[in-house]
Design a protein that fits this description.
The protein is an alpha/beta fold. The protein has helices spanning about 10-15, 65-75, 80-110, 130-145, 180-185, 310-320, 335-345, 365-380, 415-430; strands at about 1-5, 30, 150-155, 160, 190-195, 205-215, 245-255, 255-265, 270-275, 280-285, 295-300, 330, 350-355, 385, 410-415. It has an 8-stranded mixed beta sheet with strand order 4-3-5-6-7-8-9-10, with helices on both faces. It has a 5-stranded mixed beta sheet with strand order 12-11-13-15-14, sandwiched between helices. Strands 1-2 form a two-stranded parallel sheet.
């Protein structure tokens, strides 16, 4: 039996893992391969990667995230640098499993509440939770020990940091030859928000980790052989537009822990953590956002009084059922971007965090929230635009007029293509 590795095979994959509920199916998977190097949203791809083919799938284990990543590198032998990404992705995966466990156990382990009783404030002026700090450390350490990372930028760090192990206790004894690693490997830079939605975490509301991996720009060797920063300019290597992302994704900590990522931007794959086995298993292959999904809008309506009149008109129109579909839209807003985007990815509709008269660029950060999410959404065939309708992935962070660097904010609208286009039409007709 030949099974195409598309969203329609989800049930088969899931069924194949449950020996009592489905006859054992030996699966051979093939993958759709678009003719041109375009992503499903119709925009140019940085790399036209071959998707892995799974000639055999264990009926008990399914396709794990580690297998997917390994096979991705194997399916593209002409790009040996992808092998370096295997350890980077292993680090992200391990960090997400650890964070999932920390979040799940936080009511019992005393990790709820604010760091320093509220005395710890990040560069954006937000109070840091204990879990903000710990999850940042988990992710940072996981990535720096891969030896493949040059620079990391995180919501919880004031500025990008060089990934060197020598600032850790016991680093003198750490047997690690960075020179060799540098010589034989391509290097990457990472951007991440370790625990997005953390203001909700004490109430057991979904949170998530958002991450993006770029290649280090040519000619940038951030560290010398002794692990010292030798080029401060290169510390801004994380300041790349989203269309240069090699991998982007998120991990949602909710009733189940789900890891959604796009490797290269051509497809979007969803994995669920099997907590009993400790592995992420492919449960949502080739995710696609319906071009018109459920009639849902997701936006913080408390800010409505400061919105652009065009946006107010659009939301009012769909609330009344007088938009293009004639359907009355309903509101769903968690206030945790990962949860809101995950629902949008699965059900369709539109998610937005607009700029308004109080905060002209909205709240969400371009590098480690908007860009990786836009990468995922486009890989699933959706649209992701900013306040003027420009594609989020094309926004160059170095041209930030506000000078906020890695922490610059950007208005965000993303979701079903037709819904995003309908929202934009209210601006275009003026
Ligand atoms: P926190 O990480 O401070 O909880 O912020 C979450 C977030 O960055 C994003 O996940 C939400 O979509 C957005 O803020 C919610 O912001 P509002 O509370 O202003 O709606």
């Amino acid at each position: 039996m030949l099974v195409a590795f598309t969203s329609s095979s989800t049930a088969l994959l899931a069924g194949a893992r449950a020996p009592h509920s489905a006859p054992a199916v030996r699966m051979t998977a093939t993958v759709e391969k678009p003719a041109e190097a375009k992503n499903p949203a119709g925009n140019d791809l940085l790399m036209d990667l071959n998707e892995p083919v799974f000639p055999e799938v264990c009926e008990y284990a399914g396709i794990t995230l580690s297998r997917y990543v390994l096979e991705m590198a194997r399916a593209n032998p002409e790009k040996p640098e992808l092998n370096e990404l295997v350890s980077v992705m292993t680090a992200v995966e391990r960090a997400c499993k650890t964070i999932s466990n920390l979040v799940r156990r936080s009511p019992m382990s005393g990790l709820t509440g604010l760091e320093d009783g509220g005395g710890s404030i990040n560069v954006q002026g937000e109070e840091q939770k204990k879990l903000d700090i710990i999850t940042n450390t988990v992710l940072k350490n996981a990535l720096k020990f891969t030896g493949k990372m040059g620079v990391l930028a995180s919501e919880e760090e004031d500025a990008p940091v060089a990934s060197q192990p020598s600032d850790l206790p016991g680093a003198e004894d750490y047997e690690w030859n960075r020179e060799v690693i540098l010589e034989e490997s391509g290097k990457y830079v990472a951007v991440f928000d370790p625990l997005d939605g953390s203001s909700n975490v004490d109430a057991n509301i979904p949170t998530g980790t958002i991450f993006g991996i770029f290649e280090e720009p040519d000619g940038c060797n951030v560290l010398n052989g002794d692990g010292e920063v030798m080029d401060n300019e290169c510390l801004t290597a994380t300041m790349q537009s989203g269309n240069k992302l090699v991998v982007g994704g998120y991990c949602l900590y909710s009733a189940a822990t789900e890891f959604v990522m796009s490797f290269g931007g051509k497809t979007c794959q969803g994995f669920t953590l099997d907590e009993q086995v400790g592995e992420f298993v492919l449960t949502k292959p080739n995710m696609k956002i319906p071009s018109r999904g459920k009639p849902i809008y997701s936006i913080n309506e408390a800010n409505r009084w400061a919105w652009d009149p065009e946006l107010t008109e659009y939301i009012t129109t769909i609330q009344k059922g007088e938009g293009e579909t004639g359907q009355q839209y309903t509101s769903r807003y968690i206030g945790s971007m990962v949860g809101d985007v995950h629902r949008t990815l699965l059900y369709g509709g539109i998610f937005g965090y607009p700029g308004d008269t109080k905060n002209t660029n909205g709240k969400l950060r371009l590098l480690y929230e908007a860009a990786p999410m836009a990468f995922i959404v486009e890989a699933a065939g959706g649209a992701a635009v900013s306040g003027k309708g420009e594609r989020i992935l094309d926004i160059d962070p170095t041209e930030d007029p506000t000078g906020r660097g890695v922490h610059q904010r950007v208005p965000v609208f993303l979701g079903s293509k037709d819904d995003v286009a309908e929202m934009r039409s209210y601006y275009d007709k003026k």
